[in-house]
Amino acid sequence: MSGAKGIRPYGDKKGDGAVQLSFTLPLPKSAVATEAAKRYVAKMGIREPYVTLAEAIAPDFTYFVVYGRATHDIDPSGITAEEAPAAALGREEIDGEIARRFGRRIVVLGCALESDAHTVGIDAIFNMKGFAGDYGLERFHSLDARNLGAQVPVTEVVRQVRETKADAVLVSATVTQNEIHIRHLTDLVDMLEAERLRDRLILIAGGARVDHALAKELGYDAGFGPGTTASRVAAFLLDELTRRQGAAGGRP
Amino acid sequence: MPAKLGLSAEQIERCRSLARHVADGVRRETEQYTTVATERTVLRLLGVDGVDADDVPIPNRVVATLQAAGRVSRGAAVWMGSALAQGARDAGEAAAMLSDRERAAALPEHPRWREAVAPLVERTLARIGDNRAERERRMGAHPPEELPLLYAIVATGNIHEDVVQADAAARAGAQCIAVIRSTAQSLLDHVPFGATTAGFGGTFATQENFRLMRAALDAIEPEIGRYVRLVNYCSGLCMPEIAAMGALERLDMMLNDALYGIIFRDINPLRTLIDQNFSRRINAAAGVVINTGEDNYLTTADAVEQAPAVLASQFINERLAREAGLEDWQIGLGHAFEIDPELEDGLLYEIAQAEAAREIFPDAPLKYMPPTKHMTGNVFRGYQQNALFVLTSVATGQSIHLLGMLTEALHTPFLHDRWLAIEQAKTIRRNARHLGEEMTFRPDGRIVRRARAVLAGAEEILGRVAEHGLFAALSDGVFADTRRRIDGGRGYDGVVRRDPAYANPFLEAWSQAPAGVGA
Questions:
Q1: What global pTM score does this model have?
Q2: Is the minimum CB–CB distance between B344 and chain A shorter than 8 Å?
Q3: Are B234 and B286 a contacting pair, CB within 8 Å?
Q4: Which residue segment(s) compose the domain that A44 sits in?
Q5: Which ipTM did the prediction report?
Q6: Domains in chain B, please, with CATH?
Q7: What span, in angstroms and rounded, lies between the C-alpha atoms of A114 and B254?
Q8: A129 vs B contacts (CB less than 8 Å)
Q9: Which has more confidence, A121 or A239?
């Protein structure tokens, strides 16, 4: 181990570096293929690789499961990683706070963009019924939550922002072939900026492959990964709106 | 399999009768119209294909020109026949004539247009019949297949890469290969042309892509000793055109459900129900098994609550399919294993629903869809959910089993994701082969009570839909809490009221009645 504070993956004792990998090599199954898999894993910095499964899943492809011991270590004390900040408030508290602080309903739009046909993510956050026992945004009295559905063109989102005087837009990005979701997410920011709407909006991205850091990098105010509940998003909206109102010198 | 749930035969009959009432209403409304997609399909069936210098498909060009001239209402076949009777030597020349605004507008209707177009009609009917016979011949040459049929999806965006993935899946045991379409394709009002290598979330459905995949699956048939079914999607704005292309290239199964497009793609209800009827006529003639999309209701709303709506939709879909000439063995009604795995006794509810579908639709090749809504990225839990799904599928005698991927919601399936799914399904299918035969249910137990409650709920929904009609139900948001108006949504401008003398030789051949009179 290189540093005193470095840690490694844990299997059954501290510092053993136990990892499991699975992958396919474009080789017919053979002793050579298995040896190639081992050496490949060794090149990744893993000691004592042992192949527990080598399966011919197609004439020219072999699937491997390999266990081994990682030699790298990592010092977590030097790492900073942001999560979208949000207080742990329940639905009724959030409703109460929004009513008290703003005296009006907050307009929130939700969608999946362009070729993204998946509604699962945006529905989990918006639908009345919600997800994992947490009611969706449509259930919040303080929110005017409008789920625009999937495959919404960027231009349509911009039109809706203008028409509804939206306070916030939530974009769910599920499909991730050829990183297409990145392009759509970026296109929306670009167009909102071009239309001078960006600054008055809270812009949030979510999805299986989205996190706060990626969302910030793309020009969003927050990013939420899988398992996020509607109340967490609503709490973020409350905080962010309050912060902005304070910054603009408005009534608290 | 004998009935185990003790569902009331009278209640099931009442549901069928209500569904018939709903379907009658749909027919009365839709048979007054044709659509641009329906007429493009007629052109394709007459042999019009290809694209012009601007990449616009010729069938689109012709229909747009006819529409501008106000002539679509008679049916494209009338004008093709008239062009042929007045000197065009073949379908291509006739289409070229009809793509020209002035010539299309000036072309008089020829009294013998029917005779002129008849050889083209006959040629296509023969080709579709030959494809059907060839499928039957090929399937007949192999031992009967193990059920449920294992259905795998490929979705690389590149047809040549899809072939590699499909070949691997078929060798591993997949019996049906579905090439997922590029996600935006259902909203395109034209069908792309030629082999394609770039798509998003899937590969464009084109006739050439169909041909390439069909050839690849036929090529491995002798080696693996099975016929591999090819599946695509005739839904969206080009529903009947895709059906026609599939019939011409010997596809075996087609997703074919208007309600899906209406609710989830905001396609105009009238447009797509008209298109659905013609596409189902084509599929019926081609011996294609259709798959309906009830599973989708469950991905957006709660699976426990939506179960009666799924069953109600299955009754309606069955009736609409029968009216389009499909036989029961061709009606692959859809449903899904989508109950929250955190729910106590969720598996019992799944078994109740699957068994009920089996008993209510005994001759339908039920299409059973995997968990997607509650797949979290925890691939180990996902693999477990998929195992319960396969077990339910085998124990309740489902027919078409869409393999669930442990990486659902993460990425389009990797080669080994698909292999793991096939291995899992084969193992459980083998291990639990006769579980269904051994199983009975407590007459007053949870499963029986649940199945009865779902059937009662379906009857109640069907009653409401029958009272006001399907179009009113759609605008009231009865399905998946989504409201769709008869004059709203995409593609409404492509709906054209039929002239009293409207003609569609294919619809006539397949419904044994002049199209203008209604089937």
A1: 0.86
A2: no
A3: no
A4: 18-76
A5: 0.86
A6: 33-141 (no CATH), 145-450 (3.20.20.440)
A7: 25
A8: 301-302, 305
A9: A239
